[in-house]
Amino acid sequence: INAEYMGEHIAAVREVLMPIAREFRPDLVIVSAGFDAAVGDPLGNMNISPAGFAEMLSMLLTLADGQVVLALEGGYNLKSIALSSEACLRTLMGEKYDGEYYPSDPEVAMKCAAVIERVKRAHAAHWPVLGSSVQATSPASTSSTPTIPV
């Protein structure tokens, strides 16, 4: 998976949170849907696009037989909140959200891939599912394109 396309936040959810959550098998998922991480938010400054929020929510909807609750709780840019909320509502309704993903900085993507691998190694003793997907070599040593292993 190319972190440059999907974003570091989506990679972290896919590579760390989702394997643990699938193993845990929750009956209900409650999301504190603060959009201060959205593109344009003056405080979060994390630049997650509405499509990025929709993608992360799509992953969460595979848990708990789709029993997912979103509680809007933050964000400081009304346009970002509106666009991100719309993307999530469309996703909850089963619609495919076709918004744009914003490219990541390749250097940041490489650093993120390395951090994700360290997190997986650190938590593999408690969550063995993470150990099965830990990459033997760092992405930087195998490719010039930042990638996150699946």
Question: Overview of this structure, please?
Answer:
The chain has helices at 3-6, 8-24, 50-60, 78-92, 106-123, 128-131, 139-142, and strands at residues 29-34, 68-74. It is mostly helical and 150 residues long. A two-stranded parallel ribbon has the order 1-2. Strand 1, helix 3 and strand 2 form a beta-alpha-beta unit. Helix 3 runs parallel beside helix 4 (78-92).
In short:
By secondary structure, this protein is mostly helical. Helices cover 49% and strands 9% of the residues. It is built from 7 helices and 2 strands; from the N terminus they run ααβαβαααα.
Report the structural category.
mainly alpha
**Residue windows where pLDDT falls under 50 for at least 5 positions:** 1-5, 136-150
Major sheet details: 2 strands, parallel
- Total strands: the figure is 2
Our count of helices gives 7
> How do the SSEs run, as a string of H and E?
HHEHEHHHH
Q: Describe the oligomeric state of these chains in a short phrase.
A: single chain
What are its keywords?
about 150 residues; mainly alpha; about 50% helix; disordered C terminus
Show the helix and strand layout.
Blueprint: H1 3-6, H2 8-24, E1 29-34, H3 50-60, E2 68-74, H4 78-92, H5 106-123, H6 128-131, H7 139-142
Parallel strand pairs: 1-2
